[in-house]
Write a structure and sequence with these properties.
about 700 residues; mainly beta; Lipoxygenase-1; 5 domains; six-stranded antiparallel beta sheet; five-stranded antiparallel beta sheet; PLAT/LH2_dom_sf
């Protein structure tokens, strides 16, 4: 009833001294074991199940094997997957064979076993042992299984850490909240890992021990630790944190993270997340903790303010802050109201010399959650003259614009610095497959990740994730490279939250690729392995039409009756007779209103240098007439293309001739030689037949 429920442990030899070690080489190796019971009549068992792992190695003098491990917490019901985390002193991965059996106890001991999957994070090897046989009195109570090597997967190698959390000895220092941490090193970082236990952890003056797995982060330089503010007494006084790589006996394998502060909304600076610099023999210099000021300006449009819970993540040249709640403004008691500027202070370690990106969003909760964000300005407290400004000028609202409630903002302010990821999610065609829970997706590539995004606004239907339905979502993110895996989950909220996910497909038009991720599984606490979150590896890559992104900025005139309710379309003409398809300019907002400037991003055929634009509407709706002021088209030239070489050559010729009589120097002012711009002016009304006004293409800065 305590700890991890284990009644048997392997105890590694530890050298003299106190604290975390050091440990002997080869100690504490974790294994994740998944046992799948067949989905056939009477397949489940009431008996006690055990497993024995074997490894035959040519280098070893004799084979290694574990003791008999009883899988006591398993239910082994028909069609279910039972999951077990075990820790052994020996490295047995890859496992050569395994013995699995039961004690023939209970009223229905007969068992039909489908398969066993063993994953060792330290080696990254996942092995599948297929059985598909009965274990009963008519056959045998135990079977020896050999790995099906055709099903072996090599995952990213992970390392194991022993963690000690020291709660301070102050009044009310303990917490009932869920505590998490993220580790950052010079070679990578971990996700946020919750330090969960069945015992009552993080009590006043106590030390709690955990084992966690992270990617290979190299030498740590900081840890971010916090809690979710849940429970009756969430406030927490953290004294310090100790971490050591298990299996590493060197003196510089341990790291200390001093805190000595409250993580409580009623104490100190009201922050419930802290970043702590690493200390230890392996650390050359301890990084300072810096304060960053975040100034958030809400727009002045109608209903611009929000009562939702807003968060942001600052991405520096070396690391990031993680998502931080923007709750207590130093400017206004009620933050994020129309036209207001709200200032917040975040503490962080090791972000680097510059801030490259700001990720900002909200949870969509409370009435009137939609928010029109103007811009975000960030500066370090000791460098007030070095400010980084990030323009948004868009809605974060599931019912406005593109439906996104989270955006990545870069210094350029253009839509072209992000790729479009078109996500299709197929719910299975089985009974009870749909869900009303909130679904979240994180996409991982060989250059990074999108970060977790809520799949909130489907382009296919208002009621998402219904049985046998495919929902469409669009995610905008900086380029994360070739896709490798996804992580998808739901929060289990609302009745009947269980969900049968069939597959996820992600089309990346700028790459000309579609990535397919097969799932065919439940995310349900009452089905299969009872997990609500799953990592899915790439199944297949297919080619799709290769396009490039265009940013289209449309300014409606400011004269009386200038706006239109009709459906507006564009078509771009380039050289050699190339042209795009006639494409509608769609948005969830009320578009093309009097005096309004709007931005759209379309992935279309690369037509080369833009020769002309065709724009018009279908004449539908009440008051379809439209006064168009002008259109600006921007697009990047893809690297390595003939268009880029021509653009660079033209830029060189412009520099040589910039002092020549009559030379237009506006083209140099934008400083971007990897983009083309077309500015098409119109001072007349546009009719349904396309452009009814004169347009003159010219360069635009």
């Amino acid at each position: 009833s305590e700890g991890d429920h284990k009644l048997c442990r392997d105890l590694p030899v530890r050298s003299g001294g106190s604290g975390l070690g050091p440990y002997k080489e080869g100690s504490d190796v974790s294994y994740d074991i998944r046992v799948k019971t067949s989905d056939r009549k009477n397949a489940g068992t009431s008996a006690r199940v055990y497993i024995v792992l074997h490894r035959d190695s040519k280098k070893a003098k004799k084979p290694k094997r574990s003791d008999k491990i009883w899988l006591k917490s398993g239910k082994f019901d028909r069609g279910s997957i039972d999951r077990f985390a075990i820790t052994l002193q020996d490295m047995l991965s890859p496992v050569t064979k395994l013995d699995i059996g039961h004690d023939n106890s209970g009223v229905g001991p007969g068992w039909h076993l489908e398969s066993v999957v063993i994953y060792c994070p330290m080696t990254g090897i996942e092995q599948t042992f297929v059985c598909k046989e009965w274990l009963n009195t008519e056959n045998a109570f135990e079977r020896t299984l050999i790995e099906d090597k055709s099903l072996r997967k090599q995952r990213d190698q992970q390392e194991e850490w022993a963690v000690e959390v020291h709660t301070g000895d102050k009044q009310s220092a303990g917490t009932d909240a869920r505590v998490f941490l993220a580790l950052y090193g010079d070679k990578g970082k971990s996700d946020e890992i919750f330090l969960d236990s069945v015992r009552d952890s993080f009590e006043r003056g106590k030390v709690d021990s955990f084992q966690i797995h992270t990617p290979l982060v190299g030498t740590p330089f900081k840890v971010r630790i916090g809690h979710d503010n849940s429970g009756a007494a969430a406030g927490w006084f953290l004294e310090r944190l100790l971490m050591r790589r298990t299996g590493d006996g060197s003196d510089d394998a341990g790291f200390e993270f001093q805190c000595g502060r409250w993580l409580a909304e009623s104490e100190d600076d009201k922050c419930i997340v802290r970043e702590l610099p690493a200390e230890g023999k392996g650390i050359r210099s301890v990084l300072p903790v810096h304060k960053y000021h975040v100034l958030v300006k809400t727009g002045k449009v109608r209903y611009a303010g929000t009562d939702a819970n807003v968060y942001c993540n600052l991405f520096g040249s070396k690391s990031d802050t993680g998502n931080r709640a923007l709750k207590y403004s130093s400017s206004h008691k009620n933050p994020f109201e129309k036209g207001n500027e709200d200032e917040f202070v975040l503490e962080a370690v090791g972000l680097g010399k510059r801030i490259d990106k700001v990720r900002i969003g909200h949870d969509g909760k409370n009435a009137g959650s939609g928010w029109y964000l103007d811009k975000v300005t960030v500066w370090r407290e000791d460098q007030p003259d070095n400010k980084f400004e990030f323009i948004c000028d868009r809605w974060l609202d599931s019912k406005e614009d593109d439906g996104c409630i989270e955006r990545d903002l870069t210094a350029s302010g253009t839509l072209l610095d992000k790729l479009t990821y078109n996500v299709s999610v197929k719910t299975g065609d089985v009974s009870g497959a749909g869900t009303d829970a909130n679904v979240f997706l994180n996409i991982f590539g060989d250059k990074g990740e999108t970060g977790e995004r809520q799949l909130k606004a489907s382009e296919a239907a208002f009621n998402k994730f219904e049985r046998n339905r495919t929902d469409l979502f669009r995610i905008e993110s900086p380029d994360i490279g070739k896709l490798e895996r996804i992580r998808i989950r739901h929060d289990g909220s609302n009745p009947n939250a269980g969900w049968f996910l069939d597959w996820v497909r992600i089309a990346v038009p700028s790459q000309g690729k579609q990535y397919n991720f097969a799932a065919h599984r439940w995310l349900d606490t009452n089905e299969a392995d009872r997990k609500l979150e799953v990592d899915i590896d790439l199944s297949e890559v297919t080619d799709i039409e290769h396009t490039i992104p265009y940013e289209i900025i449309v300014q409606t005139g400011n004269c009386q009756g200038a706006g239109t309710d009709a459906n507006v379309f564009v078509q771009i003409y380039g050289e050699d007779g190339l042209k795009t398809e006639q494409t509608p300019l769609r948005s969830r907002s009320d578009t093309f209103e009097k005096g309004k400037l709007e931005k759209f991003k379309l992935d279309l055929l690369d037509v080369g240098p833009i020769q002309k634009l065709r724009i018009g509407h279908d004449g539908t709706g009440f008051g379809d007439g439209w006064f168009l002021d002008h259109v600006i088209i921007r697009r990047h030239v893809m690297k390595g293309s003939k268009r880029l070489r021509a653009s660079l050559a033209n830029a060189g010729r412009r520099r040589k001739s910039k002092k020549a009589p009559g030379h237009d120097r506006r083209a140099e002012d934008d400083g971007d030689e990897d983009a083309d711009y077309g500015d098409f002016q119109s001072r007349r009304a546009s009719s349904a037949s396309g452009l009814s006004s004169r347009q003159r293409p010219r360069s635009a800065a």
